[in-house]
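Protocol check, entry for the methods section draft. Step 1: assemble the input record (protein sequence plus ligand SMILES). Step 2: submit for complex structure prediction. Step 3: store the structure tokens unaltered in the notebook. Ligand used here: zinc ion. Step 1 record:
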Amino acid sequence: MSIPPVFDAHIHVQPWHMLHAAVRDRLWHGRAGLERVLETARDPATLLRFLDAEGIEQAVLVNYVSPDVMGFTHETNPWIADYVRGHEDRLVAMGSVHPRHTDDAAEEVARLVEMGIRALKLHPPHQLVRPNAYLDGMETLASLYAAAAQAGLPLMVHTGTSIFPGARNRFADPMPLDDVACDFPELRIILAHGGRPLFMDTALFLVRRHPNVWIDVSGIPPKLLLDYFPKLESIADRVLWGTDWPAPGVPSPRRNVETFWALPLAEASKRRILRDNAIALFGTRARFGTGGGA
Ligand SMILES: [Zn+2]
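Step 3, stored output:
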């Protein structure tokens, strides 16, 4: 059986020109083919050709606002919305409401939906926020979750450590999302990176406990996936494929898919992980087709 067309739920096409110099140097240090990577962020046609060559049919383009730590301003949202315009059948624009830099999160979610954002990212170590801080008075977070749930936008949350300059790893633990999953049962939550590397047991626990929680496996070397998650098969209907491309450790998304395809998992599970689960969360190509697009 051949590998199905892939839905990569975790790719980074971001406004790299906004990055703080120290972060930029850390991120791109030793990245082969950097010029090509930067070109994909300037020109969607270049990205689509790359995805074709890598066997990726659809992708979520992960973006978030983090002016203080990373340099990504509020302009990040319209930037990615503009980028995907006309390619919505293949590209999902993921944007962000920064809970510490937004007064009215509900209004901001409505504005983002209007501009074409179809999923949201929360990055606790880069936005310096604990996901359950609404229990201690951070009301922006509660209205963000309620508005995202009501608008049907999945919320991806970075879980696990980050080594970028300025990142704070006291926000890396996914366990505070236990509260969020309980208090906002309609909100679909994706634990990016499955808590790698310190919190993978917590991530597994959260997926098994809560029907509204998924993980993506981006950033986990595919050949080690079953070492990290020996019970992956038991949660296969809520695991999303993601590569974290163009992270320096991911030269070729296709090679990662091939390594994953060789793992001893049921073929039906592999198909769900590579494609079907993401379609259920983010929609089919046809639903967002523009009629004239590639
Ligand atoms: Zn990522």
